[in-house]
Amino acid sequence: METQTLTALLVALAIGLGLGVLVGWLGARSRPAADATRETLVAALEQRAGDEAAVREGLERLHDQMRDLEHARATWQGQLSQQVDDMRATADTLRRETASLATALRKPQVRGRWGELHLRRAVELAGLVDRCDFTEQARLDGGALRPDLVVHLAGGKSIVVDSKVPLDAFLDAARVDPSDRDADAVRAAHLDRHARQLRTHVDSLAAKSYWRSLPESPEFVVLFVPAEAFLSAALEADGDLIDHAAGRQVVLATPTTLIALLRTVAHGWTHEALAGQAAEVQRLGRELHERLATMGGHLDRVGRSLRAAVTSYNQAVGSLEGRVLVTARRFGEMGVAHGELPSPGQVEQVPRTLGAPEFEALEVDSLAERDDEALAQQARPGAARRARGA
């Protein structure tokens, strides 16, 4: 029994020793792999730590940007709210002013004055001058007719412009609430009434026949509609309104078309002024030419007088030197007088003749006059001899 136990113990020790040797050998072989694994794990942990730091930094920047965006959004929202409030206040003010304007335009006097202001603005934009190119509130037929504007055309002609347009129906159409169930029908009814009012005003304006009170005036009158919307609304309801007005010598004009018409008038005045200036230049040129001719005649006569004076002077010098001084020098030879007598020289230069083509006729007249003077001088000695003989 003891032998078996000892044998088993020895066998166990041998097995343990073998297992120890095997474990040592296996441990020695696995140490490099463990070191490599540990290094790889450490590197992975370090890389992960770096990635986490980068992510953390990116998150911090994103947080800062989100904070800035939130601040900017709050600022923009505040500004937008302020702008909305301002727009709401402006809309309310505009609504009140529009209502006040609509109420005021229902009064004929206010509506007439408003139309006259728009008319004058259009005239000023066209470049016309008050009291020169147009006249406001002119009286015709002894005050029976008083158009809003009389535009003076070049050549003494005139065109009458009227700005009194009915707007009650148009204002009623503008006040229709679009949310009403019958809004379209009500608005159309008001616009039909607006077109009828404008057609009636065209007929009344045509009946006045302003052109009969103005000499040489074109046979039509201009009806000024202060806004494009007024005329377009009437044409929407009555498409034949323009033809109806044209058949009654009435021209419907909005600010755009009236400015174009008045600029044509201003262009005509410009050409009229240029034509007047050209005529004045022609008159001044003719007058200057005549005065130059007269002045040339005067200069020619002065030149002839100077030439005659030079000729007479030279003849006197010749007589002095050839006759008088010869005798006077004998007094010096006889001892009666002392000193030399001065001997004046002759004038060598003669006045320049007028050689321009414009003065050729004057030169011919000058030659004829000189011939007449020469014949007269030749005739005078013979007449004197005949007188002495008598």
TrEMBL record:
Swiss-Prot/TrEMBL GO biological process terms: DNA recombination
Keyword Coiled coil: yes
TM stretches of this protein: 6-28
InterPro entries: DNA_recombination_RmuC
Job of this protein: Involved in DNA recombination.
Family: Belongs to the RmuC family.
Annotated PANTHER family: DNA RECOMBINATION PROTEIN RMUC
Protein name as annotated: DNA recombination protein RmuC
Organism: Nocardioides gansuensis
